[in-house]
UniProtKB/TrEMBL annotation, chains A, B:
Residues 9-69 form the HTH tetR-type domain. Keywords: DNA-binding, Transcription, Transcription regulation. SUPFAM superfamilies: Homeodomain-like, Tetracyclin repressor-like, C-terminal domain. The keyword Transcription regulation applies. InterPro entries: Homeodomain-like_sf, HTH-type_TetR-like_transc_reg, HTH_TetR, Tet_transcr_reg_TetR-rel_C_sf, TetR_C. It comes from Streptomyces ziwulingensis. The keyword Plastid does not apply. The lineage of its organism: Bacteria, Bacillati, Actinomycetota, Actinomycetes, Kitasatosporales. Residues 32-51 bind DNA. Pfam families: TetR_C_11, TetR_N. It comes from the Bacteria. This is TetR/AcrR family transcriptional regulator.
Length: 204, 204
């Protein structure tokens, strides 16, 4: 019986789209389950059947957005997402490639407005912030931890370095430029961050 | 005629306190000139005589808060604030000292709540964000630029390094941990950031 399944997938996507659009347009505090249901053209019971709260809906909508971006980048019919940063043996090149892809994603208007609205709310709503950091941000940072650990095994990163701190040298500057508009960002900028982090500011 | 001057200084401080308290308690969007005036016990014309907008009031309230923190750290009767990072000749020690002072400031509840409320609003109100970055954040970042330039002259930082990017390797990670609660921060953490940034992640 494929029909009910297909219909529910369609509703699910409509709900994601409605949730992302609303949070971008009117902000997280004024986004409600009722508003999402109305915009998606479903009953609010449909939403409550699948999710417990608007934070849950948005969390899954963002995860889905990430999957879509990944699939678009890798082309139609690509293998399912590989949850790892490539390891070509060249750490600088691998980090530069993944940060360039992040620059593209941060510039995508579909991602920009809802992410910004949610990040803003996460600063003042501690519980929301905690959930999004734990479920969205931290898992993506762990991919850098894994890649840096592999580089330590290969002798390309000093063994005493803590990878969870090290990754912040290139991830946090980009995050701050994007979030707070402190300065423009580009591929040249993220490439530079990787070089500075790997080789240091002091003469060698 | 010292009396009017003294009275107006007192009103000015009351207005700063009221503005910071309100933005922390009810957020930037709901903070109004009328609300600040009522809480400070002054007429709203008093506020409009000195400032054009609530953003202006808050900007000066934050500048004043920074001056107070600086004066408290340096002791009663200290010289006026020196707008420079100390240069003892030891770049690592100087950066660690200023970042430890920043850790203290970020943990001060007087600073924490209004800063967070304003940072959140700056993410979604582009004009407010631009003013606060230009008038509060960027001038403090320029102090790092100056210190790194002096270190370049002293041969402690490679000549080809762009100081405006380099400072982000230790400033942005702390900002992100503070703003987004991605992980705890401590003196040990900021010391580590400085060491990683100066000496790099790759073996020397």
């Amino acid at each position: 019986m494929p029909e009910p399944k297909r219909r529910s997938e369609k509703s699910r996507k409509a709900i994601y789209d409605a949730a992302l659009a609303l949070v971008a347009e009117i902000g997280y505090p004024r986004t409600t389950i009722e508003g999402i249901a109305a915009r998606a053209g479903v009953g609010k019971q449909t939403i409550y059947r699948w999710w417990n709260s608007k934070a849950d809906v948005l969390l899954e909508a963002f995860l889905d957005l990430g999957e879509q971006a990944e699939q678009a980048a890798r082309g139609e019919g690509a293998e399912p997402r590989q949850y790892a940063i490539p390891d070509t043996g060249d750490l600088a090149a691998d980090l530069k490639a993944v940060l360039r892809a992040t620059v593209d994603e941060l510039r995508d208007p579909k991602f920009e407005a809802p992410s910004r609205a949610l990040a803003a709310e996460g600063l003042v709503d501690a519980e929301l912030g905690r959930v999004f950091v734990a479920k969205l941000l931290e898992p993506s940072l762990q991919l850098y931890v894994d890649r840096l650990r592999a580089a330590q095994k290969a002798g390309q990163v000093r063994p005493e370095i803590d990878p969870r701190i090290a990754l912040e040298l290139f991830v946090s500057p980009l995050a701050q430029r994007w979030l707070q508009h402190t300065a423009p960002f580009s591929y040249a900028y993220t490439d530079t961050l990787v070089d500075y982090a790997l080789y240091g500011l002091a003469p060698r």
